[in-house]
Structures are given as C-alpha cells and as structure tokens.
Amino acid sequence: MCWKGDDDDAATARYVCEECEGRWTDADRIGSLQKGIWEAEKPERRVAGFHLNELCSPFRKLREIVADFIGAKDSPELLKTWVNTSLGEVWRDQDGEKADPEILAARCEIYEKVPDGAVVITLTIDVQDDRLEMEFIGWGEGEESWGIDYVVLRGDPGQAELWERADDQLAKTFERADGTVLTVLGCMIDSAGHYTRQVYAWAKKHRGRVYASVGRSGKGRPLVMAGKKIIKDYGIKLFTVGVDTAKELLLMSRIKIREPGPGFCHWPRSYPADYFEQLTSERRVVRYKAGHPTHVWELIKGRRNEALDIRGLALALIALLRPNFKALAARFAPPPPDAPPPSTSPAKQEPQKSSWVKPRSGWMRR
Predict the structure, then answer these.
(1) Which of 113, 132, 191, 332 could bridge to 212 as Cys pair (CB 3.0-4.6 Å)?
(2) How far apart are CA 219 and CA 244, in angstroms?
(3) Helix-strand-coil split of the chain, %, nearest 5
(4) How much is the pLDDT for 6?
(5) How far apart are CA 240 and CA 317, in angstroms?
(6) Angle, alpha carbons 169-173-174 (nearest 5°)
(7) Would you say 98 and 300 are in contact if contact means Cβ atoms under 8 Å apart?
(8) pLDDT tens, residue by residue, 232-288
(9) How many helices (H) and strands (E) are present in the chain, helices listed first?
(10) Residue 54 CB partners (closer than 8 Å, separation 6+)
(11) Residue 234 has what pLDDT?
(12) Which of 102, 107, 121 is nearest to 264 (CA)?
C-alpha cells in the first residue's frame, strides 16, 4: 500500500488499480471484491489459512483507512500498530536508525598539520583490558572539529609503564599550518571497567587537566555533569557523561552536517581502516518497556565501539571546558597586511611619581 497524498486529505483517497491505473471509489473496490475468488498458494496443506487487510473489508471506507494512517505515520509506535492491524503485516524495525560508515569515510581529507581553524586540542581515552585507545581532536568556532590523531597504546593498564606512555601523549604539542603551536587543553578518560583505581590515580596526577568520567545511559540525561562529592583518597571529582545524549548528538546530528562550518566533523585519511565501522557501530531502535515505547542504542553484532565511545567523551569534554573560540581565534589570527610592524626599540617609559613624602630642605642631610 502506498499513500501519495500531498495534503494529507483523507477525503481524496482512491484505490489505484495496478493493471490499468484506474482510480477506484469505495463502490468500485467493493464491487471488485464480489467478483474475486480464493486461490490456494499451498494446496498441499490440509488446513486452510486466510490473509486479508482492510482494503478487502466492505465495512471500512478508504478515507477511514487513510485517516488512520495519516494519524499514525509520524509516530513509530502508532505506525507499528497500524501496520499490524490495518495492513495485516509484520512490523519490521530490526535495522533501526544507523549511520553509514562508507559515506563518512569518503569525506576524509588530507592534512598533515592541524588546520588553522582549530584553536583548541582535546584528548579523550577509553581504557580496555590490554590497551588504551585515544583520540586527539582539534576544535574551532561553533564546535567544528578536526580529527588529528587516533592512537592505540598496547599494554597492561594495571602497570605504571603504560600510564607513563599516556603521560607522553598528554604532553604532546601540535603545530598548525600557520606555525601556531597548540597543547592539549583538557583530557577526559572513562573510569568504568577493571582499572578504576589506576584511572583515578592518573587523573589525580594531572588534576585540573584530566577528568575521570563514567557513562550513564538514559534519555534526557545531561551531556556532562560534575559529581557532588570528592572521591576519597584521590581528591578529584567524577564526571558523569550522558552516553545516550552524546550518541544522539553525534550520530543523529553532527555527522549529518554536510558542509564545513559549525558542528561539522573533519577526519584525516590517516585514521585506522576500521575507524568508521566503530564510529557507526550502534543503531537507535524502539523497544517497549511495560508497554511504553522508548529509543535505545544497540551495538550491531560483530562491531567494536571504542571510537564511538571516545567521540562521545570528546563532546562531553568540550561542553565541560567551554572554551571561548572567538577570542582564541582572534588571538591566533595573523595581523592585517597593512598593519605597521611591531617596534623593536624599547618603549619610552614615563617617569613614575613616587608616593613617598618628599624630604624637606636640609632634612637628613649631612
């Protein structure tokens, strides 16, 4: 069944014959049904089964069927009921809503240095049992972003040696195309898993620059929120990241922006081959809890999702840091071509007036 009405006026509903493309009224449709016959698709079966939808019902008018469809088409849960009951068909939403990794990969660009639009660098880290995965991202006005480097440090997170290598990554500097050198403004690291204490210790070591976090699912959670209590023995706060909110922002909004500018995501061709498979590894589907529909994010079978988790952390981190992009861009901007060159001679200094009481004539003289 296909409704091609442009104005959603159910009163204009007609049944279009597939053979002659004639437009049938309700009288035409019911008249044709009286001439129909049943043909068995599987005559070998001993028990007959019948399958009909509402178009074959003499008790329902076309405008009523279409009116029900118009009322349900914008709501997945209502549309599911209409498909089941009116069309007599099985509702299929196994694929859910997901992004296409090939489309994103085709957008990759070539840049050897950090593009001049980036004024801030962030680092976000996901901790696995045998490695640390991390991404450096450059950010500019309107949260336009440039992937800079994706790094995998293999080793045991329970040993100090791996965290010393993480220190080296945090200390990295990055040169822009115009020669400006940027350092990492802030880092967020996921503390969930088997190495929570090690993450807390590393965040304590770099307190004020590294933020330990934990993800929490659920619709409507803030993108990032600071904990109210200080973690005992470490003197740091734990930040909560709304992971569903981050995925919604990234997968349903940011990566769908097609033109460079606010919110647009750039990636370099140097990224790992499976990066975009990981970035698009989850899909949003409708699930029912106690009879109520809700959107949930599900991992596609056979996919890894570290890159997605790391990007979600990055969105939370930049929201936490809230850098003044315009001020930073102005600071790094080259001087206008007609501006006078800076003076190399020492600036003339005006004599400073002393605030001390002037000595009277002959006072303390010898």
Answers:
(1) 191
(2) 6
(3) 30, 25, 45
(4) 54
(5) 11
(6) 115
(7) yes
(8) 999 999 999 999 999 999 998 999 999 999 999 999 999 998 999 999 999 988 877
(9) 10, 13
(10) 60, 65, 86, 87, 88
(11) 95
(12) 107
Domains of the chain: 1-34+50-92 (no CATH), 101-330 (3.30.420.280)
Q: Residue 293 gets which letter from DSSP?
A: E
pLDDT on residue 19: 75
User: Which phi and psi angles does 55 have, rounded to 5°?
Assistant: -65, -20
> What pLDDT score does 137 carry?
98
**Mean pLDDT over the full length of the chain:** 85
Q: How far apart are CA 281 and CA 124, in angstroms?
A: 18
User: For 212, which DSSP code?
Assistant: E
Report the share of the chain in percent with pLDDT over 90: 55
The Cα 128–Cα 154 span in angstroms is 9
Q: Hey, which residues does 298 pair with through a beta bridge?
A: 283
Residue in 144, 213, 211 with CA at minimum distance from that of residue 184 = 211
Per-residue pLDDT of 321-341, as tens digits, reads 999 999 999 998 887 777 666
End-to-end CA distance of the chain: 115
Which has more pLDDT, 366 or 307?
A: 307
Q: Which two tokens stand for residue 183?
A: 């350092």
> Phi and psi dihedrals of 215, rounded to 5?
-90, 145
Q: Where are the alpha helices (DSSP H) in 225-300?
A: 243-251, 275-279
Task: Kindly give, in sequence order, each residue whose CB lies less than 8 Å from that of residue 209, ignoring residues fewer than 6 positions away.
Answer: 170, 184, 186, 187
What per-residue confidence (pLDDT) applies to 11? 77
| 205 SS3 class | helix
CA atoms of 225 and 223, how far apart (whole Å): 7
Distance (Å) of CA 146 to CA 110, 355, 359: 11, 54, 65
Beta strand pairing call for 131-139 and 120-128: antiparallel
* Largest CA-CA distance found in the chain, in angstroms, rounded: 135
Most confident residue range from 216-225, 254-263, 309-318:
309-318
What tokens does 196 get?
């929570």
Say how many CA atoms lie within 13 Å of 67 toward its Cβ: 8
